[in-house]
Design goal:
- The chain is 23% helix and 37% strand.
- The chain has helices spanning 9-25, 81-96, 129-146, 214-227, 245-258, 261-265, 326-332, 359-366, 414-419, and strands at residues 30-46, 49-67, 70-76, 150-169, 174-192, 195-198, 201-205, 237-243, 284-288, 311-315, 318-319, 346-350, 369-376, 386-397, 400-413, 421-424, 429-431, 434-436, 439-447.
- Strands 1, 2, 3, 4, 5, 6 and 7 form a seven-stranded antiparallel sheet that branches. Strands 11-10-9-12-18-17 form a six-stranded mixed sheet, with helices on one face. Strands 8-13-14-15-19 form a five-stranded mixed beta barrel.
- Helix 1 crosses helix 2 and helix 3 packs parallel to helix 4.
- The longest helix has 18 residues, at 129-146.
- The radius of gyration is 24 Å and the shape is globular.
Length: 449
């Protein structure tokens, strides 16, 4: 284990097991405990001057105690034996006075991952503060160097974080792993005769050597901001919309929210009882794979210790699965899918996608319509699927960008939008646990002047 951590793995395991032993001594029928430690550095510059420097070193122990079908939870950042006992006792007392819940309890034995895979998720960045400041400045300077019209910046940020944890429960599960995450981002501001525009870009990965060059990030972000100058309004219309790849990942996130157990058992989703139904266009599939080495959305097990599933959540447009934890699965009368904590490496695919379907080709497929590069607001009703968001982007004519547009809304219904996906590009990006290329959706309403 890297020396960046103050506590070795066996110490984390000993703390977790001590918490479980104390829970048993108090009469707990079951218990789980997670002990973690993380370190991080975040540096922000603005106009090449240092704005913030943040060093973090966090640790915590969380314990959940079950008394039959009653559950209590508590946590502490103090690892002394007395503090650990007090946290367990607090969870035990909460459980004593909590109502019974038939869905409460540890995962079933056969769902626990007893032999976790090594997925190569730990690549610490040996980066001191001065080096981080220099990278942020290089990123920002590259943006300013693109054009004198880049007159300001909301800042450049360099972030690195590494951590490790151990999860244990009274069913004999004890496992954990180290992990890392790193990013570089910048948000330049351009000025034209008609006002100012901003845009941003970032690169994020578990492996520092795989980050995009800070100069490339800065230059691209600046060109995005410049392209938005002299934006116009549009008259209200219906037209096809090309969602830029990061926004297509956002639509994947909307799907995950609607297909998650918490929304489903509360009847707060338009996907209640939708398994086996055609949901997307028949050329679309959505693949989940928790076990991709080094990937941002990978994990050998979920937040409960349950093994994940390599599966087609959507195949040929048909919804085959939900995203369920043990609790939400029991509420729905189903089995956990290993998604406590969310989806893993969820990739949108289309059988219509050809090797040459890059962003330029997708503009050609769009023909005349709206390219959306930014969405504003949270206007998604997951009960009905109704979708309405503020948007910015570009009007496209005959496959060529004609001019930037702003102060518009785009509206539709997620169920209809998913069915009307016409094409998915090869210009894939990774945003958290979502992977997608740009995506054309037919027949949406654009609200403008």
């Amino acid at each position: 284990m890297s020396s960046i951590f103050s506590l070795p793995d066996d110490r984390l395991s000993a703390l977790a097991l001590a918490a479980l032993d104390h829970a048993r001594s108090l009469g707990a029928s079951d218990a789980s405990s997670e002990v973690s430690e993380s370190v991080g550095l975040s540096v922000t510059t603005r106009k090449m001057k240092v704005e913030t420097i943040e060093h973090t070193r966090d640790k915590g122990l969380a314990v959940t105690v079950y008394l039959g079908k009653r559950r209590g939870h508590a946590s502490t950042s103090d690892f002394s034996p007395q503090a650990v006992r007090q946290a367990v006792e607090a969870a035990h007392n909460i459980a004593r006075f909590t109502a019974e819940d038939e869905a409460a309890g540890l995962p079933d034995d056969d769902a626990l991952e007893r032999a976790p895979r090594a997925l190569d998720l730990f690549h610490p960045w040996e980066l001191d503060t001065d080096a981080a400041i220099e990278i942020a400045r290089r990123c920002e300077q590259a943006a300013f160097d693109v054009s004198p019209q880049i007159v300001n910046s909301e800042g450049a940020n360099v972030y690195t974080s590494s951590g490790h944890f151990v999860l244990a429960n009274t069913r004999g599960f004890v496992a954990g792993y180290p992990y890392s995450r790193h990013s570089i981002s910048v948000a330049p501001i351009a000025k034209g005769r008609d006002g100012m525009q901003r845009d941003d870009w970032y690169s994020s990965t578990r492996v520092p050597d795989e980050l995009a060059a800070p100069e490339a990030i800065g230059e691209y972000a600046a060109r995005r901001a410049l392209a938005r100058l002299a934006a116009r309004k549009l008259a209200t219309r219906q037209c096809p919309i090309l969602f830029e790849a990061p926004l297509a990942c956002g639509l994947l996130g909307n799907f995950v929210q609607a297909a998650s157990g918490g929304a489903l058992y509360r009847k707060a989703s338009f996907l209640v009882d939708a398994l086996g139904e055609p949901l997307f266009a028949d050329h679309v599939s959505i693949r989940e794979d928790p076990f991709v080495p080094r990937a941002s959305g990978s994990s050998p097990f979920d937040e409960e210790g349950v093994r994940g599933l390599q599966r087609d959540v959507v195949a040929r447009g048909v919804l085959n699965g939900y995203f369920l934890s043990s609790y939400s699965a029991r509420k729905l009368g189903m089995k956990t899918t290993g998604n406590a904590g969310g989806a893993h490496n969820l990739e949108l695919r289309s059988t219509r996608t050809a090797p040459g379907d890059d962003f330029e080709a997708m503009l050609g497929k769009l023909g005349t319509g709206l390219l959306v590069t930014e969405l504003i607001g949270q206007g998604v009703n997951y009960v009905t699927g109704d979708y309405s968001r503020g948007a910015c982007g570009f009007w496209v004519e005959r496959g060529e960008i004609a001019y930037p547009v702003e102060e518009i809304t785009i509206a539709g219904n997620l169920r209809e939008m998913f069915r009307r996906i016409e094409a998915v590009g090869t210009d894939t990006v990774v945003r958290g646990s979502k992977i997608a290329g740009s995506m054309i959706v037919e027949g949406m309403t654009v609200g403008g002047a």
